[in-house]
Design brief:
Layout lengths: L1 H25 L5 E8 L4 E11 L2 E8 L5 E10 L2 E8 L3 E10 L2 E8 L7 E7 L4
Antiparallel strand pairs: 1-2, 1-8, 2-3, 3-4, 4-5, 5-6, 6-7, 7-8
């Protein structure tokens, strides 16, 4: 009987731990799709930034309305209410972004490390879940 009780407790603990971790990912304020706009000196660039999370690792995919195909996103980090990431595109070059997470809005700056443009404003609005 003791063995059954221990197995039952272990099952309940594992079930609750699984629910807690999946609930944390579902309620993550940065996970989802975002419609972004970057104000560069020569033009305004728009597209979609999609952020995912598996366990404690964030990943992102960026689709530009101006460039063909997806841009390579790396070094995605979330610390408190701040998101940083880097982007590499065939036309845009190497970009580094730092934004504040403000509920359904991301607001911050982008630096273009290839062409030297710094402090370009970026704003992103959360897209409705599909």
């Amino acid at each position: 009987m003791k063995r059954v009780s221990h197995l039952l407790l272990a099952f309940i603990f594992i079930s609750l731990a699984g629910c807690a971790s999946s609930r944390q990912v579902k309620n993550d304020p940065v996970v989802g799709s975002w419609a972004y706009s970057v104000e560069a000196p020569e033009a305004t660039y728009t597209g979609t930034l999609t952020i995912t999370r598996v366990n404690d690792e964030y990943a992102a995919r960026m689709e530009s309305d101006q460039e063909i195909g997806a841009l390579t996103v790396s070094n995605v980090q979330v610390v408190e209410d701040n998101l940083t990431f880097e982007v590499q595109g065939p036309q845009s070059g190497h970009l580094k972004a730092a934004v504040a997470i403000e509920e359904a809005t991301l607001v911050g700056k982008v630096d273009n490390l290839t062409y030297g443009a710094v402090g370009m404003p970026i704003v992103a609005q959360r897209k409705p879940a599909e």
